[in-house]
């Protein structure tokens, strides 16, 4: 054990710090590890997997087999060590301190819809009947090192987009690739995109806003409203 007690076996340290030290000292950069090995090492701690994922916003790059196909499904790969969260001044790096008030504000501002794919709360993903989207809050710039829980830095995302975006580190499209797509858009859509860029938000139409609100209602009330709308249109 080091002089400062900075050893992953030290149960007095926070779980995220212990996971970081275990990755640094036992796995080491450039090696794969299994979730089972992680859980076996950090015993007696709650939510070890989650604490490991919490290292990503602090600049740690931990790959899964989704973005590194050579890995087995239960394997992870330590590609880069980020903020030294075992040091006092870096202990809170990447941690999201989002108040309940901010959370409500962001969800309402974003009409309770994923800002990346447009799925609504508890809605099924297109082409996947039976799937259920869960909304969460993500950072506008997920790979920034900021830890501020400010509403303007946060967007509503479904859990799936949130995970995808977090895993995108290093494999994002290049500026040239994105520019090719932008250039290929018809003129009208180019102007539309420019407006979104200027506002830094994709504006929702009144019908999309109404849809987001409708999706917040319990299923029985949604059915009722659907019938009411049908009656209204037929009357
Ligand atoms: Zn989404």
Automatic annotation (TrEMBL):
This is HNH endonuclease signature motif containing protein. One of its GO terms (molecular function) is endonuclease activity. Keywords: Endonuclease, Hydrolase, Nuclease.
């Amino acid at each position: 054990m080091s002089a400062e007690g900075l050893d992953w076996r030290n149960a007095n340290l926070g779980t995220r710090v212990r996971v970081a030290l275990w990755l640094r000292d036992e796995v080491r950069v450039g090696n794969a590890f299994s979730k089972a090995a992680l859980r076996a090492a950090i015993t007696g701690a709650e939510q070890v997997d989650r604490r490991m994922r919490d290292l990503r916003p602090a600049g740690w790059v931990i790959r899964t087999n989704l973005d590194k196909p050579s890995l087995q499904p239960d394997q992870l790969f330590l590609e880069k060590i980020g903020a030294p969260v075992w040091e006092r001044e870096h202990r809170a790096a990447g941690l999201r301190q989002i108040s309940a008030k901010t959370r409500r504000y962001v969800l309402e501002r974003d009409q309770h819809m994923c800002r990346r794919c447009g799925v609504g709360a508890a809605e099924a993903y297109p082409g996947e009947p039976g799937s259920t989207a869960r909304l969460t809050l993500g950072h506008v710039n997920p790979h920034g090192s900021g830890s501020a829980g400010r509403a303007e830095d946060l967007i509503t995302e479904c859990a799936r987009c949130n995970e995808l975006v977090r895993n995108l580190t290093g494999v994002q499209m290049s500026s040239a690739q994105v520019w090719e797509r932008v250039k290929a858009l018809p003129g009208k859509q180019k102007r539309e995109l420019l407006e979104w860029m200027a506002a830094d938000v994709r504006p929702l139409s009144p019908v999309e806003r109404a849809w987001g609100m409708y999706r917040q209602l319990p299923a029985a009330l949604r059915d009722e409203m659907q019938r009411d709308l049908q009656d209204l249109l037929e009357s």
